Write the structure tokens for this entry.
Amino acid sequence: MIKKYLKLWKLLAILSAGSILSNRIDFVSYLFGKFIRFGFFFAFILAIFAHSNSLAGYGKYEVIFFFLTFNIVDTLGQLFFRGIYDFRNEVRLGNFDYTISKPVNALFFSLSRAVDLIDFIFLIPIVLIAIYVGFQIGHATIYNIFAYIILLFFGLFVILGIHIISAALIVWKTEAENAIWLYRESMTIGRFPPEIFSPKIKFLFTYFMPIIIIISIPAKAFLNMLNPVWILISFLYASLFLGFSVLIWRRGLRHYSSASS
Amino acid sequence: MKMAWIRAFEYKATVYGFRLGNIVEILFQVVIWTAIYKSTAMVNGYTYNDMMTYVIIGWLFISVTQNYGMDDVIGRDIRQGTLSAYLLKPLSYLRYSVLYSLGRVSLATFSGVVIQGFFILIFYKHVLPPSSVLNIFLILVMVFLGYFIRLFLSIAIGAIAFWTTETDGLFSFASTLIKFLSGGFFPLNLLPNSLVSLSSFFPFAYIIFFPTQLYLGKISTNQGLIGIGVEVLWLIGLYGIIKFVWKKGIKIYEGVGI
């Protein structure tokens, strides 16, 4: 079963890469757009630290590490689940009928059908910069690095859950495309350490729109600033959230009214 | 204009979602700057109140100068061949685009003003009044011209669809670049001085950055007048570019779908 889906994912990734590379202007423009956005925000952080020694108690490299973790997680989400951005059109035009009639999981197919090569390329320098910044911070142990990677995985499960809920909402009500954009906008709060927010906002973005679990908790684990109990909380949260999202998806599918029939 | 309003009300969830996204983005900027100012009283000549004013008033200018993807609308009309229907009508497509965009922005202006009014009420202690009455007039002119600069840029970018069907990436790239270079994310003078000087020769900074600088009194009325002059020159230049590009583009337009 897993082998079949890995093979299918690989095939979809190859097809998607072929499609992206056949549109060279789009490919270059999107890639440059990503680097420009990254570059400007990077310059913004450097500008902040030209006028201040710390931000909410964090030093320059620590704040940069939060920013890089945001970029890694956000990019991984887009790399693996890019299909959500075209899902509304699929449902609206009735193409989703063809998807559900295929002998594969419709949700897997819909989210994975547009694996993004551009995000993969963008990810390489970001990870390299994160490694460099990690060395500059200096005090991360093997345990910190391991916890960081494990927590990134939990974060990805939560992101998957958010994408599944967004897909369910689109099936339910075609116009609900903005759920995914609300998530994307909310993700931007993960660019900076959570300590800059008030306790109420932190609570909101930890449990209801769990950006802090997705980005800040892994980054704090790397920076050796995390109470280990948060690893357990993140695991439980990611498992429950993912399970809940699948339930919503199944419920949403019952409301699907084929647009083409 | 009426068509744009009807369409916007038809897709209410999209409009609400978009606005909610704006609110999150504004709140994000407010929170970030509040945190930064806890450890310093001044950032490159900006007090906390200056920065709050820049964010909240700057967003008002963003709302009213945006054309919400006119480049995409024009690009789609060219790519899908719907432009042909307009070419047959006794109406200039470019003039139609300007009017249609005005319809879209009128709704955005309304919702943008409501949201910014809401933010001004919440942060009234930190939002500074305009530097002078004369400057208010100059700001209005600057923002009005800024809207047309942005629209002309969108039309010019949208016309690229005459030559390639691969326009989504270009539109996305242009949109990101324009927002940054116009000071939509943070004041441009936090960047090195040479970049600020360079930005004054391009049209982008006159959409948000210069009007807010004038509002805050960080540039003089004379500099504001010079800015308006630069905007007018760019508008003339962009108009010429659009006319040239459109003339060339129409010659190779294939009218897909006819």
In short: Chain A has one domain: 2-254.
